[in-house]
Amino acid sequence: MKPWIPTTTQVAWTLSATCVAWTLTAGASPQDFVDLIPQEEAATAVLRVVGAGIINGYPDHTYRGWKPVSRYELIASTIKLLPQAPPAVTSVPSAVVSDVAATHWAYPAVCQLGQRGLGQQLWSDGFLAGDKPATRFDLAYLATQTLQAWALPGGNAPGVLPYTDVTAGHWATPAVRQVHDLGLMDGLSKDQFGGEETIDRYQLAVVLDRLMARVPIVKAPSPAANPVKSPSPALTSAVDAAAAVSPSPTPAATPTPKPTAKPTPKPVKPSAKPKPKATVKPGKPPAKPIAKISRTSVKPGRPAPKPTPKPSRRP
């Protein structure tokens, strides 16, 4: 496969629209998409994947679901559904992918995919051609790679596909069979898969929403969370325990004890001042009350004087 060379128009679209949508839209709210019709089948899927941080919207509160998705964008969104683990490799050898510069915005995403041994069919000839529009074959392939990373069961045993446009020797045939059996992707018609057709942001949201319902996404624990539990048996069978959990959580900060508030003392009402007693000036004894003497009162011990009879005058 020869390296795909984008046209001037495609390069301009990539610089003006792609980078803005996928790197500068963390503040967009899923409920504020003015171009999203609630009755559309993809509307619910869009709200879920945007709410989970898998895909972002645009700063002008639009989702622009009709826009095509590049292979860079497909990788950048799909790796968010992979098991979280401390990265062991920080670069992809140029001998493996020779057309992705270390300064490219999608370089870390390509590194994360390559260091897990995934996505090899996307650059089997050493060229990713990341600016090239992603196809339905690319989407089906990365969807099955995500299931493989989680060691989840695939589709049914190999059988006859209903699609006449998918040949047995095509590199994406196993992936098409798996996404068809699991109901992750539908054909364009009963007998046509349309693998070479490009995908838009609506189609990407629908498939990632269905995939998100199947993979046990592990989020980094918050400082106040309980200790991380051991991964489930389905994960430890093929994925190392370190790949199923986040890095060691930051120890919870010891909360600063709040000072105990002292009770405010109630104001004490001043007691009533005692009335001063009447003071007696020195040198002047208090006057004794004068007892009234009745005319008929007689002092005890002395006989009452007899009245002297007046001499009578004779006529």
Walk me through this protein's architecture:
This protein has helices spanning 8-23, 41-51, 71-78, 107-115, 136-149, 173-182, 201-212, 233-236, 241-244. The chain has 315 residues and is mainly α. The chain is globular. Mean pLDDT is 72; it is low at 1-28, 218-251 and 293-298.
Produce a short descriptive summary.
This protein has 315 residues and is mainly alpha-helical. It has helices spanning 8-23, 41-51, 71-78, 107-115, 136-149, 173-182, 201-212, 233-236, 241-244.
Per-chain topology:
Elements: H1 8-23, H2 41-51, H3 71-78, H4 107-115, H5 136-149, H6 173-182, H7 201-212, H8 233-236, H9 241-244
Helix pairs in contact: 2-7, 3-5, 5-6, 5-7
Biggest sheet: strands, sense, closure? none
Overall number of domains: 1
Instruction: Categorize the overall geometry.
Output: globular
Low-confidence stretches: 1-28, 218-251, 293-298
CA(first)-CA(last) distance: 189 Å
Q: Please, how many helices?
A: 9
Rg estimate, integer Å: 49 Å
- Residue-averaged pLDDT: 72
Question: What is the H-and-E element order?
Answer: HHHHHHHHH
Q: Please estimate the helix content.
A: 25-40%
Q: Find the structural class using helix and strand composition.
A: mainly alpha
Beta-strand residue fraction: under 5%
Tally of DSSP β-strands:
0
